[in-house]
């Protein structure tokens, strides 16, 4: 583990308007956190307290040793943060009461007048929140020669901030990949025994070639009405992806931009395209919880009286019945109320009970569809509003209201991903809920295409190795046709760049191609990835082809192939 910065308790200095810094020790073991994700050691209990802060930019800082940070390296920011209110301050007491559920505290890396996000937590009084940030610096920022400084800040004025054992660690993705090999093997492979006869009928010594046709783990991409008419896009999509999701065409603001004027023609076109290509599609999305993504006519419905609320509730019901009544059985998945960790449009107007009701009504209208929650930043460790713990709480609240939550969507709009952080989020979600997880909108933003390839590999290897993850959908792949810039895998000409080639290499790596000879007992054994296969056997009677499927299972799969 390459630790480039170790937050020395006596090395911190005030930043901005701070009354005092003081050193303390957490003596009660019950109040100490457990070992952190990739931190390297247990918490020491020693922490520094920044008191008398006048504003959110005020906090504490410490210089990073000169030359410690290198360009093009992903650094992990680890440690623990807590908050406390100064008892003598009415302002602080009010802030503490308001923030009983937690205050956002941020860590920034400041180099040459520029601040780089190093992570954030939702810190609660009396508890230690684990910091799981990451950052990367460019050569340009380091060439300026300015000193690098860690800055901790962000809670409201009057709230004291505590920092324990903050470290900056250079990540080692190759070491992580090595660690994932056994995990991947256990999650995605199975022992297979092919029987070709016994006794005298056994074709001992016959040549066998087993080739995997399809991996059971699906990869998909978003599509829209423009890109399906681009031959290079359509060719790459049909050749390398298994699932689709519509970028905008199923969203309410698209299908009913003006009240009562329904437009399903675009969604129908995309469904026809998917049907011809043999690709199932996710239904994204029935509702969207974020105010900025709700069409104006919905916002214009008054919600301050019973009549207005009844009108909005009727619109919600009409949307459900119109969409799911039209497409029942066509979409295996639906994102029901998108991004509820970041928006409350319907809940603020119709009450919290509306969210589980959306799930209940959707399940009644299309019982075969899996109904998902879907949100962003949960896998990144940098958004106090979107922690795995808050996502779990949201899911439990929905379930208590009778919602049949069928899966968890992690969008995956990432930069500087750290495998251990992604894994930690997956572990917490899977352990607490037992629900399957899909990565629903993956894109990796990085101007340097070589680093983009590395970052993409970090995410894909991590999620593929995790048993709770059942599929990955990319939020586009072609240059000029993506929501986020600097995230493409394929140029406008349809030729894969370095990131695209890495994606294709991984897809090839995760397919089994085995060969050998039938043993004296008429058996050929191999261990392969889950999916569909063709076996070719060459005997004295000629060549024989047999198709078979390897499903998940802990025991060896034994198949009678005949001769």
Structure notes:
- It is a single chain.
- The chain is an alpha/beta fold.
- 28% of the residues lie in helices and 32% in strands.
- It is built from 14 helices and 27 strands.
- The strands form five sheets. It has an eight-stranded parallel beta barrel, surrounded by five helices. Strands 1, 3, 4, 6, 9 and 11 form a six-stranded antiparallel beta sheet that branches.
- Strand 18, helix 11 (388-400) and strand 19 form a beta-alpha-beta unit.
- Helix 8 (306-327) runs parallel beside helix 10.
- It comes from Urochloa decumbens.
- The active site is at 441 (nucleophile).
- Keywords: Carbohydrate metabolism, Glycosidase, Hydrolase, Polysaccharide degradation.
- InterPro entries: Galactose-bd-like_sf, GH, GH10, GH10_AS, GH10_dom.
- Residues 207-506 form the GH10 domain.
Quick structural summary:
Keywords: Carbohydrate metabolism, Glycosidase, Hydrolase, Polysaccharide degradation. With 563 residues, this protein is of the alpha/beta class. The chain is built from 14 helices and 27 strands.
